[in-house]
Amino acid sequence: MSGDVVTELVGELGEGAVVTSRAAMESYRRDATTSTQPGAPLAVVRPRTTGEVQATMRWASRHGIAVVPRGAGTGLSGGSLAVDGAVTLSLDRMTAIVVDPDTRTAVVEPGALNADVKKAAAEHGLWYPPDPASFDLCSIGGNLATNAGGLCCVKYGVTADYVLGLDVVLADGALVALGGKRVKDVAGLPLLRLFVGSEGTLGIITGATLRLVPAPAPASTLVATFPDPVAAARTVVAVGRRLRPSMLELMDGSAINAVEDLRSFGLDRDAGALLLIRSDAPGTARTAEVAEVARICDEHGALTVFHTDDADEGELFAAARRAFAGAVDRRGTVLHEDVGVPVPRLPEVLAGIRDIAARHGLDIPVVAHAGDGNCHPLVVYDASDPDSVARAQAAFQAIMRLAISLGGTITGEHGVGRIKAQALPEQLGPDIMALTRRVKDALDPQGILNPGAVL
Amino acid sequence: MSGDVVTELVGELGEGAVVTSRAAMESYRRDATTSTQPGAPLAVVRPRTTGEVQATMRWASRHGIAVVPRGAGTGLSGGSLAVDGAVTLSLDRMTAIVVDPDTRTAVVEPGALNADVKKAAAEHGLWYPPDPASFDLCSIGGNLATNAGGLCCVKYGVTADYVLGLDVVLADGALVALGGKRVKDVAGLPLLRLFVGSEGTLGIITGATLRLVPAPAPASTLVATFPDPVAAARTVVAVGRRLRPSMLELMDGSAINAVEDLRSFGLDRDAGALLLIRSDAPGTARTAEVAEVARICDEHGALTVFHTDDADEGELFAAARRAFAGAVDRRGTVLHEDVGVPVPRLPEVLAGIRDIAARHGLDIPVVAHAGDGNCHPLVVYDASDPDSVARAQAAFQAIMRLAISLGGTITGEHGVGRIKAQALPEQLGPDIMALTRRVKDALDPQGILNPGAVL
After folding, report:
1. Which chain B residues in 343-382 lie under 8 Å from chain A, judged by CB atoms?
2. What predicted TM-score, i.e. pTM, was given to this entire model?
3. What is the pLDDT of residues B131-140, one digit of tens each?
4. A161 vs B157: CB contact, 8 Å cut-off?
5. Domains and CATH numbers, chain B
6. Is the pLDDT reported for residue A34 higher than 90?
7. Do the chains contact at B190 and A160, CB–CB below 8 Å?
């Protein structure tokens, strides 16, 4: 039966678009989470056009077959893990990018990599700011599905702030072209906004019009070390009251050492924590902003404060920060947290995470997009040891509960995916969950779009 | 029967919250449109708390009575016009504003005026940027319902960009508390974004957490005159390719004269058009930006270019721009357009509006938030002359059709309301209209929330 069903799809799209051998499907089963086992997909569909995506959804609706959309598989919440008997719809072949300098926009396909969009924009003296740490590897489609953030957000916002238009294929195969190249548009309900961050549960994004901005001014990069993460966090709170640096990142001592174990970046292994701060204010304002930031660091107990106006040197520090997740991966199996809190609660959440780590006997290195209160504690454990697994799961839940208790969120930018779906009702409560279910049912009555993700 | 129904509500909320005399209800029937006659409301409800809003919606659901939400009644698209037999729910008594400088947020009630939020923020050295021309008079609730824009948008974005949290009462009276003081949050579907700009058709906003930013740097204001609007528009396109001024407004000759007829602002009555441009870049960057803008104006045929670093002098020019709608109101009855086009199409849409005015023998003065392609042609006519009315209606439709043909929108910031609802399907097409209907039905199955607006 299932064989006939797949044959029908191959008949529509051609053999080149449908992968059915177990060996060939293997590389489409996982995302970047290591803690959850993926299912066995029925087939992997690799469309080349929006029309092929529509045909796939019409076929899926007809037969009630679930569809898991997939970008580059770099997700950190299990959002594109293969599901038993479902089809994984990989957008990796749809990679077109067209920059329009007159409207300062880029029209892109979902499989285009974030880094490639940045390169194309730069060729015209323009910039696409959203920069998840994985920007070299991740797809725009994945960024849109999760409303990805990055290191730039404290000043430049998140992916959703850059979306002017979306082409979305709905569960039944209908195509809606939302928005366009116009900057302001309130015609009708804000449906465009409903899809960015909907993690593939409401529709499949097959095209996007992204807003670009002029290339930023050259930046100065400041690195300050602290005796402990809480002192660094208090500094962040003070900076946030008055300034808007273009980057404001935190790394704790464990994170610093994980990264230095990977490669020598020149970070201080003995520091309890460091802050990585950037200013791209134009001209003399940049010097003034760096001086103000340095002063605030000193006031809050910084051990050392260093800054550079050299772009390459500044990039090395950013690279060290971006190397974090990969560096920690070498230590064991990892559960990725993505909790967010209002910025003034940052000291409390960091102290709380440290307590949870101690209570559960675990190594939980932490980095944070501190300027927007978004932390990435990584719970490291031994997947072959049931006791370690149990302690890690308990710590994972405890950290999310801590964030909620501080008026925060269980996920600031990675998405709920599958690994946090159970914790979502605790944060949102029954009324929002009921509303969510109503919206989901309205757009996907059969429940075939990414089942198990979010809800 | 209806008397009993209202008595029931008075019993629940008390007489102070429910207005039933025709005389007292009169001032709640209209908004700022003069072209459409409002209906006769069953009652006007003026809640003091979220609980009273919930009680009202439970009562309305129980009896199938429609509810028209209302802020300050300054809307320009008929969105809060009273509907026969419906209840107008005025949020004007819910005006609380609490600024939290540590999180750089303001928690506000929907009846709070935009100007009062700005004042409260300023007391803490902070700023709430969205500035519709009516900001002295309009409510935050109305701003949220329409995703209001203003003169600041070219650099500072729209209302939706400043919403971190919303309390929304749904059609059945349930309360959902979406978002909060955290800056980044992707937990669950982006429902927060669904309500901003939904024009009271999906729920009643009873509270909002707004993002504030540090007060802007002092600004320089530049005014350039041109022989005609198309030359000014070409200048805007050139500026937009590389710069992001903090304001970029256009006024055509007819608009200039309408404003000067109201009061002497010192604008050049003989100019075919003028551009009002501001830069709040910090320090020396501002001087450079002003010089660059002046150069571009000269290159594109500016007759005069003048700039001032004096804040009060600069504000006078902005005040002249903001006086436009009130000034045109003196000329006759007005149909307010709010079309938006991609910025490179600005010259074409202005030329097209001029042609439409000529073809229909009408006076259609134009201003524009030119930096984001959003124009406000005001169609002036004599409501007592059926021929004038017919020509005005035809011109109104023609302008919207022109915008759509240029890849634009029928409404950039005012909302669809009631006066543009008929044109919406032409812009969105049947697939988006079907999707819109599905979302609307999921949230408001009885269709009691602002019937006739948007859909």
Report:
1. 343-344, 369, 372-374
2. 0.95
3. 998 999 999 9
4. yes
5. 2-90 (3.30.43.10), 97-214 (3.30.465.10), 217-327 (3.30.70.2190)
6. no
7. yes
